[in-house]
Each structure stands twice: as structure tokens, then as C-alpha cells.
Amino acid sequence: MTIELNYRQHFDVSVETYWKELCLSLAYQERLYSEALGCSQMQVLENSGSYETGVKRRLRFTKAIDAPAAITKMFGSHVTIEEHSQFDAAHKTWTYRMVPAIVGERVDIRGRVQVEERPDGVEQMSGNSVSCRLFGLGSIIEHFVARSTEEGTADKTRFTLRYIEQHGLKLQR
Q: Domains of the chain by range and CATH?
């Protein structure tokens, strides 16, 4: 089974600011992973390209999890995950795949982010899919990841709104 999740958030920034100062900014990403998502470690494995040409990025992060016993028995109390992502400059779209260090070939977590310009900023539209091909645990893992994604999205939104305010990134009217 695959679980599909879709979100919309509004940010009071321009399209270019959204991509350059948030999504593509490693300074923002490092703070996001540590402060909003509670990761104890984030490494940049690859970061190449630009806003104008497109970006390929790989990050590795470690995070404590509060999961059902069946999941912590398999993964432990911490997970290490790699984010394999790409920014398509022509279509202004960010796509990613999250690859857990353990059973990464059986867990498929993907997402896509786009923004639409609005008079008062941008609307971010994101879609995520989660599926797990692991007999007996697949559904438990899918539902745990979906719940964690929902919580993480809410945490990211709150953090991003504060970050925009703190760094003076709001649209000037």
C-alpha cells in the first residue's frame, strides 16, 4: 500500500527568495534539520549547481525516533536517513527521495515541492508518498512515517515562518 500526503502552506516571500534563501540555502537547511526536526547531525554529501541551472543535493541526517516497539526493534531509537534531492530550474520544482540506512531498498519515501506566486507571497504545494515492502511491518512503518511526516511538516512550517521574520525575508509592500 502507498500512503499519499498533500500539503499547502503560505509564506510571505517572493518566489526567488523562497528558492534561494530557503529551499536551496544550506544555512537554512542546517537550522531546519537541527532546530525544527530535532536531528542530532546533518552532513552535506553533495551540493552542486545553482538556482539558474538546477541543483543536486544529498544530505545525511540522524534523528531520534519515538516509534512503536516493532519499529525500534528493527531500526533502534535513532535513524540515519539520506535525502537525495534535485531542483529543476526550468520548472521550479524540488523533488526528493528519503533513503533510510536500514532497509532503504524496501522503504520508498518520495516528495515533490512547487510554489505558486500569490499577491501576498507564495503558496507552497507539496506531495509525499510513503510505501514499504516489508512483510509484517510494512503497514506499521508506512503509518509511522506518514504520521512523522505530518508532524514534521507542521514543525517545518512554524520554523520557516519564524526564520522568514528573523532574517527580514518578508515581501516588502
A: 2-166 (3.30.530.20)
Q: Does the predicted model carry a pTM greater than 0.85?
A: yes
What string of H, E and C letters represents the secondary structure of 12-75? CCCHHHHHHHHHCCHHHHHHHHHHHCCEEEEEEEEEEEECCCEEEEEEEEEEECCCCHHHHHHH
Rounded to an integer, what distance in angstroms lies between the CA atom of residue 96 and that of residue 85? 4
Per-residue pLDDT of the chain (173 residues; tens, 9 = 90+): 899 999 999 999 999 999 999 999 999 999 999 999 999 989 999 999 999 999 999 999 999 998 889 888 888 899 999 999 999 999 999 999 999 998 889 999 999 999 999 999 999 999 999 999 988 889 999 999 999 999 999 999 999 999 999 999 998 76
| Contact present, 22 and 160 (Cβ < 8 Å) | yes
